[in-house]
Design a protein that fits this description.
The structure holds 2 protein chains of 2 kinds. Chain A has 18 helices and 22 strands. By secondary structure, chain A is α/β, with parallel strands linked by helices. By secondary structure, chain B is of the alpha+beta class. The chains are: A alpha/beta, B alpha+beta.
Chain lengths: 647, 241
């Protein structure tokens, strides 16, 4: 077996992975990046709308600052996030955007003078201060107090990823693409790399490093119907779950985006509504103001998706061959706007569903979009229970999103986390020796070879694609916008069967090389088990918070559930183990989000009592001690001046 | 009644002993709004489990899925079968290294192209985290973005006569990338450096200007305009010499 060594191994060449690699290479470390696909094809490139950062250059961002951004993020998370991590994020986001400008992103800029825009669905004129002419501008997104989302038309992920990859080229960081990490190499609580399968020729290799970073993105494709790229099959989070010791956090927190197009589930960005797009029902009636008089179409995603579904359940959906949907109306934005600032959206509608958004309504419905949960890490990005393993980006539960992430906060997270966590990874690698334990690597590789052998030559009978489709069907049916105890129990029972079926898969082709069917078969156990952790986590959480909405427990319950779910899978043939930990220090006490209209059960502890148990509570669950004390980056009650200043 | 489609697909697995390039035919009942992405998945899942091809975004954004569809290089994910005849021929893109069946190695080619052109902002300035960003006119930002929209799909290279003859030719995508940095005021490269990069047979002088590339580019990049700009720039540089 070939063994390839480096100081830092980064699994994933999306924005999170590449920014980390750059941070480490800047420290003089030898970095290796792996990716399933050429870096620029990573899912980050598909992000359209933009990235949030409180630059406050546009007149519509006046008065914005990191504290306001932080407030929006904490409320958006339904108080499920780690408030300190959200703070680290909000404070660094403006720096990250400026740095990306320095690297070469052609951000859209402020144009001085009068501009025609749409605000809350109505035409309006704003006057941009010419003093800010040429600075990075912003558009509106859901759940935000200000226009804060920086963008390049509707190709933001594309330009930012291309720019980031240009930096990778400039620094000469190698990327081995068409490579899939399939198992971590670890012993006694220390990770030393990964076993990797080449998707070019099927070769099995070991990549050994001082520090291993997982930046593999989301797992949306486990749902089948998803806005995600088809490579987002949860292979990275599976690497962690498979260890049996590293927990995944909040797997039940799954975001459903209001506007996937029907059919095909391709996303049209929230920027559509940010720029003035409206949601209409079967009577072409604009229904959102009835439900959300304040934020209307621009409440947070969990709320808008829920309201849409609610409205459809009232019989107001549009029936079609592809199921029920609603309409997104962009016509009033006009040809000029749709062909420039929303050009990808225009192309997608024209090419994929033959709808011209300049003159026609776009069929949309809520579609699985983002995973708030993932590999649980401390604020340095270091995984629980496994030294030398780091995770960031969508695959991680760093946890600035809690139970609902705001649009524009994820792409921004990847870059900010890459800056912040990248430094910690570098620090760790600089003070660690390379441990090349060939025997250990060989053992790990052997386990994968045995698995392949049984898939190819065993006496299984199941077709991998049928199992995959069934898992997606179950999740989409029972673990979606509205959840009930009964439905979730069915999902758990059915998914248990899929785990058994997954063990009994037979690959029909023994073709050498990448063997696409074998590739899928190698992933199926991880997909089935992660699906199970999502459903079981949702069943056990008897409250509603953010995207996790239980019809039978409609209230957010801060007395019992102001916590984070952690799940590990120590015995591969047994049941997963669930535990709960405090969400993190509370600075902004739990309160009303200002939209969504949910009920609340107040916490019984005081905030101080809650905060006292954060450090011991998290440490008991395997959190490695971060480089600085808990709370060091959380300025106490900075929000007070903000909220009170307004009154 | 729906149509029965016949897909004639180029098959070759270089990792398989004694495999020879050949064509295989697969039949499929057409369903409404079927695109080549879904059709290939159906073929793989039901008939040819070893069939190799590349899709990532399935939304016309990532550039993974370019192939020759009835002789024309284009993105398979956004090609609807309803726009095609009953018989659909699928071949891998020419020019790029074949990995198997319809899968080619565009990634490595584009990385090498980027390295050759030093596809990054050349600047002496250091990033100052405390400072406000440097200003840029929004029109300039939009102009850069127009070229930055290239998704590295390789269609333009596959459709280019020069590229088939000169393997080192930068192709439309490469020339467009030069344009992207030429437009960018942040890039401090001087005329001399640009001149050396573009005024060769691998650069603008190799281009025959018949604009097959412009015709096939799925993102409708303004290649014509960009080439004209580079040519003007180069002749200006040559005159200045
Ligand atoms: C359609 C769409 C639009 C979006 N728009 C926005 C937006 O406007 N604003 C916003 O904030 N967020 C947006 N998001 C969310 C955001 O794009 C993602 O959360 C973010 O890009 C994730 O980045 P990442 O670096 O974590 O992962 P990715 O970009 O998904 O990269 C993952 C990388 O890991 C590699 N990889 C995966 N598994 C393995 C393995 N086993 N071995 C080796 N390599 C592996 C992949 O090849 C890839 O390189 C959008 C998401 C979608 C689906
Ligand atoms: S104009 Fe012709 S020769 Fe020049 S890049 Fe385009 S296709 Fe190739
Ligand atoms: S210029 Fe157009 S055809 Fe060529 S690689 Fe870029 S997007 Fe594809
Ligand atoms: S799969 Fe991304 S462009 Fe076709």
């Amino acid at each position: 077996m070939r063994v390839i060594t480096s100081d830092v191994l980064v699994i994933g060449a999306g924005l999170a992975g590449e920014r980390t690699a750059i941070a480490c290479a800047k420290e003089g470390l030898d970095v290796m990046i792996l990716s399933l696909v050429p870096p620029r094809r990573s899912h980050s490139s598909a992000a359209q709308g933009g990235m949030q950062a409180a630059l406050a250059n546009s007149v519509m961002g006046e008065g914005d600052n990191p504290t306001v951004h932080w407030l929006d993020t904490v409320k958006g998370s339904d108080w499920g996030c780690d408030q300190e991590v959200a703070r680290i994020f909000a404070d660094n986001a403006p720096i990250a955007m400026r740095e990306m400008a320095h690297f070469g992103v052609p951000w859209n800029r402020v144009k001085g003078g009068e501009q025609q825009v749409f605000i809350k669905g109505k035409k309006a004129t704003i006057t941009e201060d010419s003093v800010n002419e040429g600075l990075i501008t912003a558009r509106a997104f859901g759940g935000t107090a200000k226009w804060r989302t920086c963008y390049t038309a509707d190709g933001t992920g594309h330009t930012v990823l291309y720019t980031m990859d240009n930096m990778v080229l400039q620094m000469g960081i190698p990327v081995h693409d068409r490579m899939e990490a399939i198992r971590l190499i670890h012993r006694d609580g220390r990770c030393i790399g990964a076993i990797v399968r080449s998707l070019r020729d099927g070769e099995i290799l070991a990549y050994v490093a001082k520090a291993t970073v997982i930046a593999t993105g989301g797992y949306g494709r486990i749902y089948g119907e998803s806005t995600n790229a088809i490579i987002n099959e949860g292979t990275g989070s599976w690497l962690a779950l498979q260890t049996g010791i590293v927990p995944l956090g909040n797997m039940e927190a799954v975001q459903v985006h209001p506007t996937g197009i029907v059919p095909t589930d391709i996303l049209v960005t929230e920027g559509c509504r940010g720029d003035g797009g409206l949601l209409l029902d079967v009577d072409e009636y604009r229904f959102m103001p009835d439900y959300e008089p304040e934020k209307m179409e621009l409440a947070s995603r969990d709320v808008v998706s829920r309201r849409m579904k609610e409205h459809m359940l009232k019989g107001k959906g549009v029936k079609s061959d592809y199921g029920e949907h609603l309409w997104l109306d962009l016509r009033h934005l006009g040809e000029q706007h749709l062909k420039t600032k929303l050009r990808e959206v225009y192309d997608i509608c024209m090419y994929f569903i033959g709808v011209n958004p300049i003159t026609e309504l776009v069929p949309v419905r809520p579609t699985q979009h983002y995973s708030m949960g993932g590999i649980r890490v401390n604020k340095d990005g270091h995984a629980y229970n496994l030294e030398g393993l780091f995770a960031l980006g969508e695959v991680a539960c760093w946890d600035m999103h809690g139970f609902n992430r705001l649009g524009g906060n994820s792409l921004a997270e990847t870059v900010v986390a890459g800056m912040v966590i990248g430094k910690e990874v570098a620090k760790y690698a600089l003070q660690t020796d390379l441990s090349i334990e060939l025997g250990l690597a060989e053992e790990a590789a052997q386990m994968e070879r045995r698995k392949m052998d049984s898939l190819l030559n065993g006496d299984g009978t199941e077709n991998v694609y049928e199992v995959r489709d069934e898992i997606g069907r179950i999740l989409t049916k029972y673990v979606h916008i509205f959840r009930t105890g009964e439905g979730l129990q069915t999902a758990v029972d059915e998914l248990k069967k899929q785990i058994e079926r997954a063990k009994n898969v037979k690959v029909r082709t023994t073709a050498p090389g990448m063997n696409p069917e074998l590739s899928t078969a190698l992933r199926i156990e991880g997909m089935a088990k992660q699906a199970y952790t999502i459903a079981k986590g949702a069943l056990d959480r008897t409250e509603s918070r953010g995207a996790h909405y239980r019809e039978d427990y409609p209230a957010r319950d801060d007395s019992n559930w102001l916590n984070r779910t952690l799940v590990r899978w120590p015995d591969p043939d047994g049941e997963p183990v669930y535990e709960y930990e405090p969400v993190g220090l509370l600075d902004l006490p739990p309160g009303d989000r200002g939209y969504g209209g949910g009920q609340m059960i107040d916490m019984t502890k005081t905030v101080d009592e809650y905060n006292e148990q954060v450090d011991p509570g998290q440490t008991a669950k395997g959190r490695l001690s971060p480089s600085e004390a808990t709370g060091a980056r959380l300025p106490k009650e900075a929000w007070r001046a903000e909220l009170e200043g307004k009154e | 009644m729906g149509r029965t489609l016949t897909f004639k697909i180029f098959r070759y697995n270089p990792t398989k002993d004694n495999d020879q390039p050949h064509i295989e035919a697969y039949r499929l009942e057409e369903i409404p709004r079927l695109n080549v992405f879904s059709a290939l998945n159906m073929i793989r899942e039901q008939q040819a489990p070893d069939l190799m091809y590349d899709f990532v975004c399935r939304a016309g954004i990532c550039g993974s899925c370019a192939m020759m569809i009835n002789g024309r290089p284009t993105l398979a994910c956004r090609t609807l079968t309803s726009d095609l005849p009953d018989t659909i021929e699928l071949f891998p893109l020419p020019f790029f290294k074949l990995l198997g069946d319809l899968s080619v190695d565009t990634g490595v080619w584009f990385r090498e192209m980027g390295e050759r052109l030093e596809s990054w902002i050349h600047t002496q300035k250091q990033f100052d985290p405390e400072a406000q960003e440097e200003r840029m006119d929004n029109a300039t930002a939009n102009k850069i973005y127009e070229s930055e929209r290239c998704i590295e799909c390789g269609c333009c290279i596959a459709g280019c006569a020069t590229a088939q003859v000169y393997p080192d030719f930068l192709g439309a995508a490469g020339l467009n990338r030069i344009g992207r940095f030429l437009f960018d005021p942040r890039d401090e490269r001087g005329d001399q450096e640009w001149f050396e990069l573009v005024s060769t047979d691998e650069g603008v002088f190799g281009c025959l200007g018949m604009m097959a590339c412009d015709d096939v580019c799925p993102k409708d990049l303004p290649l014509l305009e960009v080439f004209a700009y580079i040519r003007r720039k180069v002749s200006g540089m040559a005159l200045a010499k």
